[in-house]
């Protein structure tokens, strides 16, 4: 799932920061001097977008000599990306590469910590992320959560069948829609039918309908434990997912409730990783 962004995105990132050249480096007059740039961790970090950061530096005119892959987990003080070249190339790519690394690795590191915490109490639980990433950053967000050990819950509206109350409101209510589950499964045989419940009563009805997954929204871990038991009693084979308010502080409690899938958005929002950068003239 860890893929690289296309050249068009890399070029767009550079264009945003460097539309007409680097005025400071130009006026100081050291742009042609040869140098070296080194990126290193300042904290425990799950790396992401190292490949893209390397390509930023290359497109600016530097030569990459060391690059650890996305998904690598490092302790503090580890060097992971090094490039050499004219100072003007190093300074042109410096902040674009750093921003990519810090934001993407922040998402990857949060994801890694949550996945590890959840698997400690529930080794087979799946951790998946919603489509609530900041607009324009989905490719980076998906790469980052993949580097951290999660998968996307929904990449978009086109490939998933997830029924909310906002859908059932147009069709006469939940029970009317549940009567069409068999038909839905025939129409989309390769796609799982997921239906969200707001209450334990709705969850049991969905479990009886033949849906593939019942998604429970905004229940506490204690409430989930009771609901999961009721669902399993009527349909032992249905998968149960939980969404709403799940984050690094409580994800393990949700995993321990007996659910199969944790759905969250919180990994997208938070502190970027702290990455150190040194730029020096080459010996």
Explained architecture:
The protein has 2 domains: 118 residues, Aldehyde Oxidoreductase, domain 3; 148 residues, Aldolase class I (TIM Barrel, Alpha-Beta Barrel), CATH 3.20.20. Helix 1 crosses helix 3 and helix 4 packs across helix 5. The longest helix is centred in the middle third of the chain and has 35 residues. Strand 9, helix 9 and strand 10 form a beta-alpha-beta unit. The two termini are 40 Å apart. The protein contains 11 helices and 13 strands. 41% of the residues lie in helices and 21% in strands. By secondary structure, it is of the alpha/beta class. The relative contact order is 0.16. The mean pLDDT is 96. Strands 7-6-12-11-10-9-8 form a 7-stranded parallel sheet.
Order of helices and strands: HHEEHEEEHEHEEHHHEHEHEHEE
Assess the beta-strand content as a share of residues: 15-25%
- The name CATH uses for the topology of the largest domain is TIM Barrel
Q: Major beta sheet, specifics?
A: 7 strands, parallel
Spatial gap, N to C terminus: 40 Å
Number of domains: 2
CATH superfamily of the largest domain: Aldolase class I
As a percent range, the share of helical residues equals: 40-55%
Parts with pLDDT < 50 across at least 5 consecutive residues: none
CATH class of the largest domain: Alpha Beta
Number of helices: 11
Structural class: alpha/beta
CATH architecture of the largest domain: Alpha-Beta Barrel
Q: How many beta-strand segments?
A: 13
Taking Cα atoms only, what radius of gyration do you get, to the nearest Å? 23 Å
Mean pLDDT across the residues is 96
